[in-house]
Design goal:
Elements lengths: L3 H40 L2 H6 L4 H28 L6 H17 L7 H10 L4 H29 L2 H5 L5 H30 L1 H11 L9 H18 L4 H29 L5 H15 L10 H9 L1 H4 L2 H40 L1
Helix pairs in contact: 1-13, 1-15, 3-4, 3-11, 3-15, 4-5, 4-15, 5-6, 6-8, 6-10, 6-11, 6-12, 8-9, 8-10, 8-12, 9-10, 11-12, 11-15, 13-15
Length: 357
């Protein structure tokens, strides 16, 4: 039975959690808006805005961009349903998707929403050990998509359209970051493939041996936990039929492709002369480079990278800023708002469950 003193604790904790949440929302918004304001002051002119006519064509393309973003959420929600063998309802799957995306918006890109996905799954009734296995599976599927799709993109688009188009030091730096991050993703995906699909126990033992050297020992415990999760995930995935793999990877490809196509829809509206294949291919470069962004949700860096990288296709820094702003509203700020609406109730639900035990 709870004492009056006990019942006062959850509201105080809830207020603390809510204040912490508000700060995490404010910080990326402040960074993003500060960078956008600085760029608008430097690059934007009234003539650019006057040249934009929000006619039926542009409005339909903006609506199409929103539709593609819904496609991204549908793909990830579908994947959560498939991973849990339909244990999650569509409503629960969408809720987890929005919470994961919100977490990505308020944490550095290297952390991402997947790190908290197991907690969200557990709250929706998935046993914690299985939730950990499922989130490791989503991580593997996401990384596999990048590793598999990039060679296809490179074959479809001339290399100079991605990296050698006259921006000097920027393109040199962009290439270095891109190939460096891609190499890490490739190595990490290979480790996951070997550790989950091929030889889980052998990779676990190898990692434990490697991280017992003195200069790596501080991470030995975390790596051992990773190896254990790989073995558990491997046992789970070996039972899965080919049809399940096709469905989950298809949902992964749908979600990422839909996210990229948001930019295509905006270009179709504001810069219809741009090559849509190049616009799409450059999104692979953008998102891989943003994986190492130190700011919450890549705030500020996303806007700068977008306007600089796509500038040669737009031929107007002001117009690039307008498109970047629409892109961030649709693919970023809307998730901050959605998460701010969902998260307080989610936190309160946790306190109610704790009190009922």
């Amino acid at each position: 039975m709870n004492t009056p003193q006990d019942t006062k604790k959850p509201p105080q904790s809830l207020r603390r959690q809510t204040l912490n949440l508000a700060w995490k929302i404010f910080l990326p918004v402040a960074i993003g808006l500060a960078v956008v304001a600085w760029m608008f002051k430097r690059e934007f002119s009234r003539a650019v805005w006057d040249s934009i006519h929000f006619d039926t064509h542009i409005i339909l393309c903006i609506a199409l961009a929103w539709l593609f973003m819904i496609g991204r959420d549908f793909g990830l929600s579908w994947r959560f349903r498939a991973l849990t063998d339909r244990q999650l309802t569509w409503r629960q799957a969408v809720k987890i998707d929005l919470l994961c995306e919100f977490t990505s918006c308020v944490t550095p890109s290297a952390v991402g929403g997947s790190a908290f996905g197991m907690i969200y799954l557990n709250r929706e009734g998935i046993e914690l050990g299985r939730a950990t296995t499922l989130m490791m599976t989503t991580l593997f599927l996401d990384e596999l998509f990048f590793v598999v799709s990039l060679p296809i993109v490179m074959l479809a688009v001339p290399y100079h359209e991605l990296f050698d188009f006259g921006h000097g030091n920027f393109t040199v730096g962009l290439q270095s970051v891109f190939w460096g991050v891609y190499a890490v993703i490739f190595i990490w995906t290979t480790i996951l493939f070997l550790g989950i699909i091929v030889r889980p126990h052998a990779i676990h033992r190898f990692l434990n041996w490697l991280f017992h050297f003195k200069f790596l020992r501080r991470w030995a415990s975390d790596v051992d936990t990773l190896g254990q999760n790989m073995e558990i995930t491997g046992k789970e995935l070996k039972k899965r039929p080919i049809r399940w793999w096709i469905e989950t990877f298809g949902a992964t490809a749908l979600s990422w492709s839909s996210r990229y196509l948001v930019v295509n829809a905006l270009f179709l509206g504001f810069v219809p002369s741009a090559d849509q294949l190049i616009v799409f291919a450059r999104q692979f470069v953008v998102w891989i480079c943003l994986m190492i962004s130190p700011t919450p949700g890549s705030a500020g860096i996303s806007e700068w990278l977008f306007t600089t990288y796509y500038g040669d296709l737009i031929h107007s820094a002001g117009m690039a800023l307008v498109i970047a702003l629409f892109w961030r509203i649709i693919s970023y700020y809307v998730y901050l708002i959605a998460g701010a609406c969902i998260m307080p109730g989610w936190i309160q639900q946790g306190f109610r469950r704790k009190n009922n035990k």
